[in-house]
What we know:
Layout: E1 6-9, H1 13-24, E2 27-33, E3 54-61, E4 64-70, E5 84-88, H2 91-102, E6 106-112, E7 120-124, E8 130-135
Parallel strand pairs: 1-4, 5-8
Antiparallel strand pairs: 2-3, 3-4, 6-7, 7-8
Helix pairs in contact: 1-2
Amino acid sequence: MEIQPYLFFDGRCEEAVEFYRRALGAHVDMLMRYRENPEPPPPGMIPPGMDDRIMHASLRIGDAVIMASDDCSPHPRAFGGFSLSISVPDASTADRMFAALADGGEVQMPLDRTFWSPRFGMLTDRFGVAWMINVSP
């Protein structure tokens, strides 16, 4: 059994996918736009203007999979109450990933030595997703 986070973006999923590809080396396993749906939804289910937005994307980051899409619900969702945690093998990888994710985001705890790790830090990226970067001792 695996738990895979599914992130909903309010019209910025394609931008987020590209950002995570560059920042984290994410590999895009699958990306489908609403217009590519092989079984069109019932009339009125998808708001107008969604054709080129992302219906579903699957990103592989290391051994983990994160799924994402542009939310088509009438009520935008906000990220909250969780962080995505990345364990990396060394300080240089942590430094690189932290800096990349922090670009346009907000640092809550700068990347530094802790009692459990040679490097740990917390931030929220430009899309509002919270991250923790941790070097495995």
